[in-house]
UniProtKB/TrEMBL annotation:
Pfam families: APH. Residues 1-25 are annotated as: Disordered. This is Phosphotransferase. Gene3D superfamilies: 3.90.1200.10, Phosphorylase Kinase, domain 1. Residues 92-281 form the Aminoglycoside phosphotransferase domain. It comes from the Bacteria. CDD domains: ACAD10_11_N-like. SUPFAM superfamilies: Protein kinase-like (PK-like) (SSF56112).
Length: 373
């Protein structure tokens, strides 16, 4: 997850919340020391922290200087610094690593090759894993790809249509190809359906976010709405990517080359990923329109995503009002935590109304009132 600009704020990327409390140069030196224990004589060369690094797990890009490296260009995913007012309460790097290896072994969904897992925090201050670095380009978050001036916005309708179709196909293949029995380690503890466990986990996450902080009446209304509109049949349980959005895919041209960011993976109905993909695009589209730009109104439309997925899988998505609102609610909890993080670091004042910290407040209000779609 990453921070997002406010509508009309063209200087947002200059005032983004701090994304790390770590020293990149020290991190690179310690990485070289660790790398020598796995590949004698190897050095980490040209280590950089991407500008788009998020506020959750951190990424370090580097090359391996060695006569026979398993991969020359690598990326390291490091659990968030516990001192950095983390976005999530727990970062299970072994779980992410295992998920990527399962997807690589049992599907044709493109994921980076995983190389090493290090669970001992002594080396870099937290557990991490190393994977190959995919070449390509990613739709930007800041400024969002719905704004003018980036490669996706400047593409033709046909090119964006291809990217949309292939991105929906990623979900279809993931949901259909992973044997559920091999993904049981992703099951959320608890009782009831996978969907009910997922929602209860989000309730627990919200309670963690507001511990010692003002509560959000809007988010709590959202949970009440979910209870009142619960699907009569939650549907088939599959491996859900979790952060299913095009900003987490590296594209070769307009075709997916690598699917990234598996820290939110879990078991749940197909619609969890579909609702997230649809809603996150609408979030960026609403930002663009709020800034007086047309955005990309014909791209990743809910009806088209649903019909594409149904044709590919034979499973017409259902209860999508529920799942898109649930996606907006989940995003609101993350954004509330990110806002409280900014307040913690003195980057923003604390407002009197906690709901004012939710950037898509109006959207969530409209969804709850049944007037958004």
């Amino acid at each position: 997850m990453t921070d997002h600009p406010r509508p009309g704020d063209r200087t947002a990327d200059a005032r983004r919340p701090r994304t790390t409390t770590r020293d990149p140069e020290l991190l690179a030196r310690r990485l070289t020391a660790w790398l020598g224990t796995r590949l004698p004589g190897a050095r980490a060369h040209g280590a950089t922290v991407p500008d788009a690094n998020g506020m959750s797990s951190e990424t370090l890009l580097f090359d391996i200087d060695h006569p026979d490296p398993p991969e020359a260009a690598c990326a390291l995913r490091l659990a968030a610094d516990p001192a950095a007012y983390c976005v999530f309460p727990r970062y299970d790097m072994a779980r992410q690593y295992r998920t990527m290896r399962l997807v690589a072994a049992r599907t044709d969904v493109p994921v980076p090759r995983t190389l090493w897992l290090e669970e001992d925090p002594a080396h870099l201050g937290a557990p991490f894993f190393v994977m190959s670095r995919a070449a390509g380009r990613v739709p930007p978050d800041v400024m969002p790809y719905t704004y003018e001036g980036n490669w996706l916005h400047g593409a033709t309708d046909a090119e964006r249509d291809r990217l949309e179709a292939d991105s929906v196909a990623v979900l279809a293949r993931l949901h259909g190809q992973v044997p559920l029995a091999e993904a049981e380690f992703l099951a959320i503890p608890g009782t009831g359906s996978a969907l009910s466990r997922h929602v209860e986990a989000q309730r627990a996450y919200y309670s963690w976010v507001v511990d010692g902080r003002p509560r959000s009446p809007l988010i709590e209304r959202g949970f009440a709405w979910l209870a009142d509109h619960w699907p009569p049949d939650p549907g088939e349980t599959v491996l859900s990517w979790g952060d299913a959005r095009i900003g987490n895919i590296v594209y070769d041209g307009f075709a997916p080359a690598a699917v990234l960011d598996w820290e939110m993976a879990a078991l749940g109905p197909r619609e969890l990923d579909l609702g997230w993909m649809v809603y996150l695009h609408r979030f960026f589209q609403d930002l663009a329109e709020g800034s007086g730009q047309p955005g990309l109104p014909g791209f990743l439309r809910r009806d088209r995503v649903e019909s594409r997925y149904a044709r590919l899988t034979g499973h017409p998505p259902r209860d999508m009002e529920f799942h898109t609102l649930y996606a907006a609610l989940r995003h609101a909890i993350v954004m509330l935590r990110v806002a409280y993080r900014r307040i913690h670091f003195g980057e923003a004042p604390a407002p009197a109304d906690a709901d004012a910290l939710i950037l898509h407040r109006d959207t969530l209000e409209a969804m709850l009132a049944g007037r958004y779609w």
